[in-house]
Amino acid sequence: MLETLESLDQALFLYLNGLHNDFLDLTMLWISNKFIWIPFYLGLLVLIVRKHEWRSLIIIIPILILLITLSDQISVQIFKNGFERLRPCHNEDLKNLVHLVGNCGGKFGFISSHACNTFALSAFIIYVMKSKSLVYIMIVWAVVVSYSRIYLGVHYPADVLIGALIGWLIGYVVWNITKSANSRLDYILSYD
What we know:
Layout: H1 2-17, H2 22-32, H3 38-52, H4 55-83, H5 113-129, H6 132-151, H7 157-189
Helix pairs in contact: 2-6, 3-4, 4-5, 4-7, 5-6, 5-7, 6-7
């Protein structure tokens, strides 16, 4: 059963990774670069501060740091180092078939840290902001960034899919922590 799933995952990877051209090569490299998204992240912070005012500085910003640290460390320390599944570009059986754009990255790829981080952030922002239009923006953003990892040849579809699910779960849990901290802050401030 596990061999069949792995074969399907590899076949889907080769198909998706094979859909390439020069324009997409550059575009996907750009999309996968975390620093290119700094203006997007700053825009999200502005939206959070506008909606939640001073409270966002006390709770949301430290929570966002916790969120990204958790999703990144869980994806690396528990999954990548725990499962030790080779990236497609490091897999001797596939590496000559992989359209690798850029650097292959570390040896192990299960789960995708990009997928985990972007979906954790997306889930958290969706729950915190409660904005229908932001739901679409955040999900499309997370999906495109996650797909870029398959396109670039560094992750299998399962790496991305499981990374996205784990990331969403982390985002949901951290949002619940935020709600609890917010309730405690309201309680403390009511005695001033």
